[in-house]
What we know:
By secondary structure, the protein is an alpha/beta fold. Strand 2, helix 2 (59-67) and strand 3 (73-75) form a beta-alpha-beta unit. The protein is globular and about 55 Å long. The chain has helices at residues 10-17, 59-67, 79-86, 116-126, 137-141, 143-151, 173-181, 194-201, 224-231, 242-252, 261-268, and strands spanning 31-32, 54-56, 73-75, 99-102, 112-113, 131-134, 155-157, 186-189, 205-208, 214-215. It has a five-stranded parallel sheet, with helices on both faces. This is Polysaccharide pyruvyl transferase. It comes from Micromonospora yangpuensis.
Amino acid sequence: MHHANHFYGHAHVLARYCGLGAGHPPRIDGYVQHGWNVGDGLAPGHPYVAGTPSLLWSEPTRRRAWSLGRRNVVVIGAPFAYLLAMRPDDPPAERREGTIWYPFHGWEGQRVHGDHRRLIAEIRATEPGPVTVCLYWQEYRTTRIRRHYEEAGFRVVCHGYRGHWWRDTDPDFLDRQLTELRRHRRVASNRLTSAIFYGIAAGCEPAVYGDPMTLADDDPTFGGTARIRRQWPQLHGARIDPGLAAGIAREELGTDHRCSPAELRELLGWSRGREVTGER
């Protein structure tokens, strides 16, 4: 299994949906798209073995992959869409309050550069209620960055560690994220990212505003932030039409392409007569 299939516990969520339990998931035959992507579903520079299936979230991503020469591509929907199917009313509906805010983050190989103090000032001037700031694990462990948000009076959380090279994957990452999203009335970020689409799907009002910050050695292959703002202008701003956003999120997460457990087992290579184990 490619190690990116484990990111954020995606393989674990899919295994649970397929009725395989909460243990170590079996090997997936293919590359599962691990984040919202404006290219072919894989990260730029992502190592790719020709002929290996790309298991993508949405039809728009499939079309882009096809235009870039990918041929073995299948739309299965985002793992988060499967989590929503498993937890349609859990936890019970309650009064939502405030905003959960996701500052743009880097990853193990690239750091983000930006002015967190200026972003905090804009959040304070924009958000009508209490604010929860969710930091990526790197920023959360960086005491200086975390303290900026704590000293601003925000509640600061981290959904967990996404995992890397099959190590330390948190299989409850998405469950924890869904629970937090359902506590809040709004979801916001300084970039249009997976978290915004997850929040919309979980019933939050979205917002995208503030300095988008920069990623060290950012790869411009798919057009970067400028392209995203051009292509989805209706999803940028402090106030966004919730109905319009819901339709776009449904398309981008591939909710209508969600498979049945039997179909998904077949597409992932989990029903081909071999023993289903925790093999990588």
